[in-house]
Amino acid sequence: MYVAVKGGERAIDNAHALLAEARRGDPGVAELTVAQIRAQLHLAVTRVMAEGSLHDPDLAALAIKQARGDLIEAIFLIRAYRTTLPRLGASQPIDTAAMRLMRRISATFKDVPGGQMLGPTFDYTHRLLDFRLAADGPGAVPPSDTPRAMAAAGPVPHVAALLERDDLIEGAPRDDTPPPDLTRMPMELPATRALRLQALARGDEGFLLSLAYSTQRGYGRTHAFVGELRIGWVDVAMEIPELGLAVTIGEVEVTECETVNQFLGSRGAPPRFTRGYGLTFGQTERKAIAMSLVDRALRWKELGEDGTGAPAQDEEFVLMHADNVQATGFLEHIKLPHYVDFQSELELLRRLRAETAAEPEAAE
Amino acid sequence: MSLLARARPARLAALFPAPLPAHDLLRAPEIGSVMVQGRIGGTGAPFNLGEMTVTRCSLRIASGAVGHAYVQGRDRDHALRAALIDALMQTEAAEVLRVRCLAPLARDEAARRQVAAEKAAATKVEFFTMVRGEDR
């Protein structure tokens, strides 16, 4: 238990001043601007948006600067800011089939209608340090006048839709049930798939990565193929109360991953592939792939599979430990003063020792 | 209205510079959030993905026309200008505004999207599967 302490104001003020100095670093080196972070550390920015659960690249970049690059601290700052905002409403569900694609790949079909575009990927790089990036001054890195090609006209259909057309995969029929919102009411278990996906979308990338990896290694095996991974921009439309009609109010960058998993069939229903789904803000494909694997693993009951007791199949375990702001809050609070708490344990220990020291004599 | 919502605030300010036409604020620019929803499997039941920042504003201009704006981000001037243009589009100024503001915004956006799409298209890949030696 944490009991409040007081005092130490001057030390705390000085520690915060020291923090500001350490954040700034060597004054002989130019200060980073928020615009630089936003433009050049885009993947850090999008991770903070995804797990901070707020799409605003300027705020995410500011949080990264303030947190000295500690992304979980930055996510914490975004979550705290988010709570100060009035909720103006909910969007209509985004249409990811109409995504303006910057990347779209399929591990299941090489000739997928609409084609595969690698986009700005680390895949197929050699993972060798590029010392040209360490060279100072302009001109050290060649200008990026990247090639262009004729772009496909119109939206590119989902890979799952192609399999669905041939009845080879379970459907995802449209349903307009209003989703539960874990930012408005406490998480209730068992959770619906919609609630689980909200929790996973804002969950810690590292935690989901490890869980997803555990399913690949056999702890709740789901045998996933990446049917499709797409990254791009989608419009966000909302019904405007003053107008009574839906209008596009912005656009967000998202990553979507859909896995194709092993079959489910029964008497009367031919076997079909099953699906796992991942959707995250920003360019966050490791997270989106992990999310779709964990989503699929959590569906074992709904799909009539055996519960093997694997961590990734344990809804309570996954959902109650996925949030890194909750986790870090509880973990890190144990470094704060616990003097009274500890004192009582110390006294208990001394009493126990005194009793055991007295006992042998009594037994003799 | 959606074009104004997605516009870059600085570009909108350049196309529709101060001094701004007289107006009464019905709702001063207010920063808030909108919960963005996705659909399970892209097409199924909705779920809450996360929020985005949005600024809204409502006002009335001298002619009596009322303008509303919901714009992405946290720029109050952006929301104010968008609401003003929304109101002015209901007056005889509409044609001038369409040419001076909305058309350039639409061109900017189309050009930005076209460049991004063409750069992505240049990374289009053709994969081939190889016949392995032992299969011959």
TrEMBL record, chain A:
One GO biological process term: organic phosphonate metabolic process
Pfam families listed in its UniProt record: PhnI
InterPro entries assigned to the protein according to its UniProt record, in alphabetical order: PhnI
Source superkingdom: Bacteria
GO molecular function: lyase activity
Keyword annotations from UniProtKB, A to Z: Lyase
Protein name: Carbon-phosphorus lyase complex subunit PhnI
